[in-house]
Amino acid sequence: GIQVEQSPPDLILQEGANSTLRCNFSDSVNNLQWFHQNPWGQLINLFYIPSGTKQNGRLSATTVATERYSLLYISSSQTTDSGVYFCAVPHPKAAGNKLTFGGGTRVLVKP
Amino acid sequence: AAGVIQSPRHLIKEKRETATLKCYPIPRHDTVYWYQQGPGQDPQFLISFYEKMQSDKGSIPDRFSAQQFSDYHSELNMSSLELGDSALYFCASSLNYGSPLHFGNGTRLTVT
Q1: What's the whole-number average pLDDT of chain A?
Q2: Going edge to edge, which strands form the sheet with B5-7?
Q3: Most buried by CB count within 10 Å: which residue of A93, A111, B8, B72?
Q4: How many other CB atoms sit within 10 Å of the CB of residue B14?
C-alpha cells in the first residue's frame, strides 16, 4: 500500500510562532486532505488539496503532487492550534477515496 | 451546516459482549466510511459503502460487520468484543465516491 510519512512527529511552539509541517507520500495520488484532531478527539477538515496552494485564515497548504509532498503552514500560532495534524491520501488502486493517514504531527502551542 | 452524526458518543462494554455503532451521513452524501483509531495511533480504514453496497474493505476483523441502509445511515456491529477493540471509531461520509471525507465526532468504545 501507499506509505505516508509526516514530519516532525512532535512540535512545541510558543504562541505567535510560525511553523511548517510536511507530508511525504510514496505514490502518485489524485487528492490529499489535511486534518486537525483536537484534544477532544474530533477530526476537523482543514484542506482538500490535490495540488497547488490554498489558504484559510492563518493556515495554508501547498501540495506538489509531482514531487509527492504537501506542506501545511501555521502562522501566528494560538493555543487552540494544539492537537495532532494528519495528512491523508487515497489508496492509488482504490476507485474511491479510502484514505491512508500519516502518523501525524503532534503540536503543542504554549501561551 | 449539517455534519456527520455518530451515536453513541461513549460506550463501555465488557469482553465478549456486542456493540452497535450508528452513523448518519451528511444529507445527500452517498458514501460512508468507518475508521478505527487506537490510542496514540492514526485512523485505520475498516470498511466503506457506496450507494448501500460495500465498496471497499480494510483491516476489519471477522467479528465486525457493517451495512448501509436505504436512508444511507450505517451501522457497525461488533461481536465478541476484546480488550484490544477499545478505540475511537469514526464514521465519515463523502458526496460521492472520490470527494473529500467529512468525519463525525467519533464513538469512544471502552472494553473492560
Answers
A1: 94
A2: B5-7, B19-24, B74-78, B64-68
A3: B72
A4: 9
Q: List the beta strands (DSSP E) in A19-104.
A: 19-25, 33-37, 43-48, 52-56, 59-64, 69-74, 83-90, 99-101
**Given CB atoms, is B100 within the 8 Å cutoff of chain A?**
yes
Write down the pLDDT at residue A30.
86
B79 Cα to chain A: minimum distance (Å): 24
Contact predicate B53/B67, CB 8 Å: no
Number of alpha helices (DSSP H) and beta strands (DSSP E) in chain B: 0, 11
Residue B107 at interface with chain A, using a CB cutoff of 8 Å: no
**pLDDT at residue A95 greater than cutoff 70:** no
**Which residues, other chains included, contact A67 with Cβ-Cβ below 8 Å and sequence gap of 6+?**
none
Tens digits of per-residue pLDDT, A27-50? Answer: 988 899 999 999 999 999 999 999
Alpha helix ranges (H) inside chain A: none
Name the DSSP letter for residue B15.
T
